[in-house]
Design goal:
There is one protein chain. The protein has about 240 residues and is α/β, with parallel strands linked by helices. The chain folds into two domains: about 1-80 and about 160-185 and about 190-238, P-loop containing nucleotide triphosphate hydrolases (Rossmann fold, 3-Layer(aba) Sandwich); about 90-155, no CATH class. It is built from ten helices and ten strands. The chain has helices at about 45-50, 75-80, 95-105, 110-125, 125-130, 140-155, 170-185, 200-205, 220-225, 230-235, and strands at about 5-15, 20-30, 35, 60-65, 65-70, 80-85, 160-165, 190-195, 205-210, 215-220. The strands form two sheets. It has a six-stranded mixed beta sheet with strand order 6-7-8-3-9-10, sandwiched between helices. Helix 3 (about 95-105) runs parallel beside helix 6. The structure holds adenosine-5'-triphosphate. The site of adenosine-5'-triphosphate (ATP) has 12 residues, from strand 2 and helix 1.
């Protein structure tokens, strides 16, 4: 089997003269679930967008197995098995739920595999099956988040990158997203979860990285970080 480890080394992102991310390194091995946490503005989204090639890298390398992702356009990452759920969901509001999901399979085609993928998305999020004919714009924020995750899953990724899936959701819906991510993890999908919600992240991931001012401030197992007094005070409010 080909190696499908995501390896980020010394990543840097600059906006004009402002350095948003510097010297960020981490890996996500196959089947591993890694969290990237930090306060507002810590550089989490910039890191993820730089991985996807959606903002230019000012330095560093990003590899997926033997591939240099610096040479792969964002739209082609899906063919390598990398799924991306952007911040703010970005569903196609004017299209029905099912059409949104089918568009997620554009790279792999609409054959039997696509029908299987659709069935497993509906099993993961039964509410989407109930609403399959509704316009995506008519869904609640939580349902749109499920749709955004479902759409990324339609391409059958091996690695899923998620940017703040819990943002703006009620605690009950955060639980639904948490349950879905835990299930996907159990199925062997590799996850890179970017979150301000540290508690959610620690529940879903085995390792976490704490970003502060664009730099890695701490890394460790999610269990150890969750027990750390500084993390408890700053990120868990305990
Ligand atoms: P959030 O939780 O708000 O998404 P974040 O940890 O994801 O925060 P980033 O959005 O990556 O942080 O922002 C990191 C820094 O880069 C911040 O200081 C932000 O103001 C700055 N920044 C982000 N995007 C741009 C941009 N397009 N142009 C200029 N500065 C930017």
């Amino acid at each position: 089997m080909t190696d499908q480890t995501l390896a980020v080394e010394n990543l840097a992102v600059r906006y004009g003269g402002v350095t948003a991310v510097r010297s960020v390194s981490f890996t996500v091995a196959p089947g591993q679930s890694v969290g990237l946490i930090g306060a507002n503005g810590a550089g989490k989204t910039s890191t993820l967008r730089a991985l996807m090639g959606l903002v230019p890298r000012a330095g560093g390398t990003v590899r997926f197995g033997s591939r240099d992702l610096g040479r792969v356009a964002a739209r082609n990452m899906v063919r390598l098995g990398i799924g991306y759920v952007p911040e703010g969901r970005h569903v196609f509001a004017g299209l029905p739920v099912e059409k949104n999901l089918l568009l997620g399979a554009y790279a792999s085609g609409w054959g039997p595999e696509c029908r299987e993928a659709l069935a497993s998305v509906y099993e993961l999020f039964p509410v989407l099956a109930q609403m399959r004919g509704r316009l995506a714009g008519a869904l609640s924020g939580g349902q749109q988040q499920m749709l955004a995750i479902g759409r990324a899953l339609m391409a059958r990724p091996v690695l899923l990158l998620l940017d703040e899936p819990s943002m703006g959701l009620s605690p009950k819906l955060v639980e639904v997203i948490l349950g879905a991510l835990q299930r996907l993890r159990g199925e062997g999908l590799s996850l890179l979860l970017v979150e301000q919600n540290a508690m959610l992240t620690f529940e879903v991931t085995s390792e976490s990285i704490v970003l502060e001012n664009g730099e890695v401030a701490m890394t460790g197992t999610s269990a150890a970080l969750r027990a750390d007094p500084r993390i408890r005070r700053i990120y868990l409010g305990l």
